[in-house]
Amino acid sequence: MKLNDWPMAPAVAAPEVYQQLGQITRQLHDTLQRLGVMPKLQHSAQNLPDARSRLSYIARKTGEAADRVLTAVEQAKREHDAIQAASKQLARRCGADPARLLPASEVLAYAVAVEGAATRIDQQLTDIMLAQDFHDLTGQVVAKVVSVVIDLEDSLVQLLRQAAPGEPVPAAAAAPALLHGPVVAAVASADVVSDQGEVDDLLASLGF
Amino acid sequence: MSDPTQLKFLVVDDFSTMRRIVRGLLKEMGCNDVTESEDGAAALQLLKVQRFDFVVTDINMPNMNGFELLKAIKAEETLRHLPVLMVTAEARKEDIVLAAQSGAAGYIVKPFSKATLEEKVQRILQKMAIAA
Fold it and tell me: Interface pTM (ipTM) of the complex?
């Protein structure tokens, strides 16, 4: 059987099908409007792109934090390896001839190198500590997404309750009241600051 | 008063991770006297029974948020002298303006660096020293 031999629906039937589909859609829309569910459902659906953007923000922040931590750990391990190698070398030289004192300049160079490496490792540890801020920032964003999901659940439960009044329907959880939280979209916005410099400029303009 | 290492800090944030980060950074600045509190209401209770010199607070918290804590501190005769530094993810300009108008001594948006926290704390203390 060739492709062209497949039975096709009569062309005259298509407009009727579309017309019927249109009528059903209109009836469903009108029914939902009368039931009072549609506005809330629309509101919940409108929040879904925002929830998508927030979930992307979480993925980005956790990825950045992981990269930041791994980079700092790799750098710190290199410093640690260098200290270990220098210490071994010094110990070997001391052990080779215990009676002979090492030149002061050599010991001083070792001490300076260890101090420099320790300072850099301290900075890397601080960076690892600061990278953990993703937990706070993404935690606030997760709370926002949960709030959107609770809203959507509430709308669907309401719809279910009105569509089948006799059936027991579980109550939806109440969405917690939340402030805006972190800025998740990279796009610039007039009412939001993008960095600490803008905060300082705004405060300075207010006389602070 | 301009030496932060001699001060008693109260760090308020509902996320323990952020409290530990701020505590760790303050410790790196030499400030070892740091108390933590998980929300504004608990912080206010602490402030009423213990002496603190500096408050670092988040805004978005349960029970009592940072704005409410700030207003409660400024409304209390015995506490209103306390500098309150807001450290928050709330980046809307109206929030920053509201914080300034409510008496916040500084405002830091998360994520922030060690240098930013250090600079803000020092600057607030210098301003207080000049005003005294």
Answer: 0.79
